[in-house]
Design brief:
By secondary structure, the protein is α+β, with helices and mostly antiparallel strands. The protein has eight helices and nine strands. The strands form two sheets. It has a five-stranded antiparallel β-sheet with strand order 1-2-9-4-7.
Length: 207
């Protein structure tokens, strides 16, 4: 990743992050200033790693623009996609953020991506010292917990075709930006199986 030198792009990224904290985070402006002054804008090219499994993160990342995937890597080199996040989302590992433990998964930019890097220790301190920050972190953690529960239920209760249809609903804005093999990995099926599912659904729409 490359630190973006002071420029219009840097100012835009930090301004967008500040706006997100105000609107989505519900924080008053005076409670965001310290965090913004200690954050930095980064550029991550397509295919670059944001952080790796085994890293104990010192920063969390706000996606200003672009697309990032979370994935697990087996000892045999097999990749399993865990999640995809785009603009207006936070990239981090809860293990690192909450307990200062190594991240269990990798993250990779799938497009040219601009991130705002936030010192994790500062974010932790704000969450422990200020009720508004505590609520923001609580909402973030709850959202991830609900997402995890829904994904588990999908794998246990739905077949591959139903999981794909749910994916198209949940990731409608991203489906056209993701290669089919990444979607297949997220669904826990092969690209060939996904191609067959897509063909069946296309035939049903025509008939």
């Amino acid at each position: 990743m490359t630190v973006i030198q002071e420029s219009q792009e840097t100012q835009t990224a930090l301004r967008d992050f500040g706006r997100w904290l105000l609107q989505s985070g519900g924080l008053p402006a005076d409670k965001t200033e310290d965090l913004l002054t200690k954050s930095r804008a980064l550029h991550c090219g397509s295919g670059e790693t944001v952080f790796s499994a085994g890293d104990t993160l010192e920063e969390l990342f706000f996606v200003n623009s672009g697309l990032v995937r979370y994935y697990y890597l087996t000892p045999e080199g097999k990749e399993y996609n865990k999640n995809f996040v785009s603009s207006g989302s936070v990239v981090t590992s809860l293990s690192s953020f909450l307990e200062a433990k190594p991240a269990p998964f990798f993250t990779e930019a799938l497009e040219d991506t601009v991130l705002v890097a936030v010192p994790i220790e500062l974010a932790r301190n704000l969450a422990s010292d200020d009720i508004d920050w505590e609520r923001l972190v609580g909402r973030f953690v709850r959202a991830l917990a609900i997402q995890k529960e829904q994904r588990e239920a999908s794998f246990l209760l739905k077949n591959a075709e139903q999981r794909y249809e749910a994916f198209l609903k949940d990731f409608s804005a991203l489906a056209m930006r993701l290669p089919q093999y990444h979607i297949a990995s997220y669904l826990g099926i092969t690209p060939v199986a996904l191609s067959r599912i897509r063909s069946r659904l296309a035939c049903r729409r025509v008939s």
